[in-house]
Design brief:
six-stranded antiparallel sheet, hydrolase, Glycosidase, Oligo-1,6-glucosidase, domain 2, about 25% helix, about 575 residues, Immunoglobulin-like, alpha+beta, Glyco_hydro_b, TIM Barrel, glycosidase, GH13_cat_dom
Length: about 575
């Protein structure tokens, strides 16, 4: 076997406590190079009395590597361990002292997980594992109170631009909560609500005041209360990387320069703070001069922003924060942010906006989750014909192995957002492809999120076109698509196996865009069959038992001679299940 490919470190995603009784171990090997892996485990103070040799499962793979995983329940909350790897007649051992062909001499030479301390345990909110999120841009969702419309408001449903307004507000959200209940939504993520001159509100001016165009603080409290009465959780957007140029402390810097008492609240590279040769003399979000970047290492800035985070958690019983441009804020700030927020609400759900591998933020001391844009990119590439099943399984395996299981169970999965083209547009307006994407979203591990209006067929290119007004006229809505979303949401909410069960590809072959995969827990076993081609296909996979049913129709589906054969229309799918208990 290729020894250079073997990898394990006794920390991070490779060795971590899943709960107070369970340690997860992972090890990496070259793809298709190792036949068996065993975790050799025991207590260093009583190795002979506690020794267990636990078979590891090949949990995922990517293009180059296989990833093996085992859940270990040590008797005394501590663990010493090594790995035994077998390929043909060759056996090697991985341990803290290196890789060798002779077994370890316990208690020396072993990796250690010294103790499961509950205070160190990475706990994520249990409710987020069951959540189906709905992302709302308040300005574009519904106009419930025309009296608070901004000047020059345009007629509802007009063409969105970077600087126009249509009058959406919190009263409009309040009036449509029962529509979200009908769809099956049990969590809302609002883009920014606080005072700002823009339609998107990512350039905040007053962090403790709802923008008057949306209503006021009391109305927000009423909306959150009404959501909670209906079993809907609420997450707000926190823009703590930067503020708007009209933010009073920044205005003081513009007036008083280096003499401003707020001069160190920002990253001013040269006074006066201005746009010089097209580039701000101060750090900003991107190069937008109207969004100056906070110096979050400044104690006064940190105290102010953490006070904002705590204020809304306590004031309106907020259920969590989505953190804008989270990767550009220092880690010290986010560690303190987590402490403040979790003290105010231990079940608060913290989602960072990070567009790439985010493990640094997902080790239990900062975020619970991140916006999983890599998921969206890979899913859309596959269902748009950009890769075969083999490569898709590799890509998804790589994503699963990025994070510990508790993060995977609540990672924020979406197929589009206010920062991307609309889902229907991204699949070339082919509803069959859209449905395959949505089926995958709702049968995959993680917390799914719908961007408002996708369920009724709203289209749109990138910002600002993706930020169209919600369509409320039933005659202009795609009601068949709405019913499909409603059906998939209900299926996911009903079955724990689709939320936290094991995910594994059963069929994903080179040069074939069709896939079969499974979700399974101790109660239910699901298999999902997808024909990602424009031709009728019959997919086959070995299945011995005859107790399968179609999850959407309850029709019995039996294999023949131990082989399940499923005929699928072009870009069609089928979901089967059987009860294990």
């Amino acid at each position: 076997m290729l020894l250079e490919a073997l990898y394990h470190v006794p920390r991070d995603k490779w060795a971590y406590a899943y709960d107070t009784a369970t340690i997860h171990l992972r090890v990496r090997t070259k793809r298709d190079d190792v036949e068996q892996v065993f975790a050799m485990t025991g207590d260093k103070y009583d190795w002979d009395g506690t020794y267990q040799e636990i078979p590891m499962e090949k949990a995922a793979h990517d293009r180059i590597f296989d990833y093996w995983e085992a859940a270990v329940k040590p008797r005394f909350k501590r663990l010493s361990y090594a790995f035994k790897l077998i390929a043909g007649s060759e056996t090697v051992y991985m341990m803290d002292t290196g890789i060798q062909h002779e077994g370890p001499t316990p208690p020396g030479e072993l990796y250690e997980f010294p103790y499961i301390h509950e205070i160190d345990l990475f706990k994520v909110p249990e409710w987020a594992k069951k959540a189906v999120f709905y992302q709302i841009m308040p300005e574009r969702f519904a106009n419930g109170d025309p009296s608070n419309d901004p000047d020059h408001v345009q007629a509802w449903g007009g063409k969105p631009a970077g600087d126009n307004f249509f009058g959406g507000d919190l009263k409009g959200v309040l009036e449509h909560l029962d529509d979200l209940i009908d769809l099956g939504i049990n969590a809302i993520y609002f883009t920014p609500l606080f005072v700002s001159p823009s339609n998107h509100k990512y350039d905040t001016v007053d962090y403790k005041k709802v923008d008057p165009q949306f209503g006021d603080n009391e109305l927000l409290k009423e909306v959150v209360g009404a959501c909670h009465d209906r079993g809907i959780r609420v997450v707000l957007d926190a823009v703590f990387n930067h503020c708007g140029e009209q933010f009073p402390p920044f205005q003081d810097v513009l007036r008083n320069g280096a003499g401003s008492k707020y001069a160190d609240w920002f990253h001013i590279n040269e006074f006066p703070a201005q746009i010089k040769d097209g580039i701000p003399t101060y750090d900003t979000f991107g190069f937008f001069g109207n969004m100056p970047k906070f110096n979050t290492a400044n104690p006064e800035v940190k105290e102010y922003l953490l006070g904002v985070a705590e204020y809304w958690i306590r004031e309106i019983k907020l259920d969590g924060w989505r953190l804008d441009v989270a990767n550009e804020v220092d880690h010290h700030f986010w560690r303190d942010f987590r402490k403040v927020v979790k003290e105010a609400n231990p079940e608060a759900y913290i989602i960072g906006e990070v567009w790439s591998d985010s493990l640094t933020w997902l080790l239990g001391d900062q975020f619970d989750s991140v916006m999983n844009y890599p998921f969206a990119d890979k899913v859309l590439e596959f269902f748009n014909g950009g890769m075969d099943g083999y490569n898709f399984s590799n890509e998804m395996g790589s994503l699963i192995m990025r994070y510990p299981q508790q993060t995977n169970e609540v990672v924020f999965n979406m197929l589009c957002s206010h920062d991307t083209p609309r889902l229907l547009t991204r699949v070339g307006s082919d509803k069959r492809k859209l449905k395959l994407c949505v089926v995958f979203l709702f049968t995959y591990i993680g917390t799914p999120c719908i961007f408002y209006g996708d369920e009724v067929g709203i289209t749109g290119e990138g910002d600002p076109d993706c930020r169209k007004c919600m369509e409320w006229d039933p005659r202009k809505q795609d009601r068949e698509l709405y019913d499909f979303y409603k059906m998939m949401i209900a299926l996911r909410k009903e079955h724990g196996a689709l939320r936290q069960g094991r995910f594994r590809f059963l069929q994903a072959n080179p040069n074939d865009p069709c896939i079969v995969y499974e979700r399974m827990d101790e109660r239910m076993h699901f298999t999902i069959w997808m024909n990602n081609t424009g031709k009728y296909r019959t997919l086959s996979h070995p299945m011995e038992t005859e107790d399968w049913r179609d999850a959407l129709s309850e029709v019995k589906v039996k294999p023949k001679d131990g082989m399940m054969n499923i005929g699928l229309d072009p870009f069609g799918f089928r979901i089967l299940y059987r009860k294990l208990k």
